[in-house]
Amino acid sequence: MIKTQLRNTFIILVISIALVFGIGAATKKEALSYTPGTYYGTATGNAEGLWVKVDFSEDSILSVEVIEHHETSGICEPAIEQIPVKIITTNSPYVDAVSGATKTSDGIKNAVISCMNQAAGKEEIVQPPVHEDPVPLEYSYNPGTYSASAKGFYEDVKVEVTFSETAITEVKVTDFARSEYGDERVAEVQETVIPDILKWQTYGVDACSGATYTSQAVMEAVQKCVEQAKK
Questions:
Q1: Where are the domains of the chain?
Q2: Distance (Å, rounded) from C-alpha 82 to C-alpha 70?
């Protein structure tokens, strides 16, 4: 009887030790040494094309910056602000996601992990995103103001575009789905996409990060106006 109890106790002890070491092996993160420098990583959050830039010393993450993304405006900002700080503070990408922005949080963390692997020589070096300058349209126009609309995130976005004989001179968003996020997205597009349309004289410009659907709607509506005005 005593032998049986001792044997059972020994078995339980062995299993317990195995579980402890097994759990430790599964949760322990590999310590890496890095080639100091700046590395770029990309991953998918709510959308593809989330890019980070990470600076390393030999054994530490010195800085993390989200340099490009197409995440949902009004939702992604807490993750973009907080996750890099958490990663730098803990010197690890294995931090808790920001509540309400889990996918964006995970995208940032995965992009940083890619940078860590590059800096440790475990992945091929990734080059930063490169954007070519837009190509201006070579049209002449019937001067005047034209209007058109295109589908945005929820509803149509309507624009008015004014032309001289040789140029797009003004672009205005005149109607869109009124909401907290809708107002923010349109404001961002008015600050980024519309100035680029006027600068480059084309609707083929980069979308605004965080307001992709609204950007695309404005560009599509401007394209419709161009088709109406061109000679």
A1: 37-119, 144-229
A2: 17
Alpha carbon separation from 228 to 147, 149, 158, 163, 218 (Å, rounded): 9, 13, 15, 11, 15
Cβ neighbors of 144 (< 8 A, separation 6 or more) are: 162, 163, 229
Residue 147 phi, psi dihedral angles, 5° rounding: -130, 150
- The 10s digit of each residue's pLDDT in 54-95 is 999 999 999 999 998 888 877 888 999 999 999 999 999 999
Architecture field, domain 37-119: Alpha-Beta Complex (3.90)
Condensed to tens digits (0 to 9), the pLDDT of residues 181-205 reads 567 778 889 999 999 999 999 999 9
Beta bridge partners of 54: 39, 64
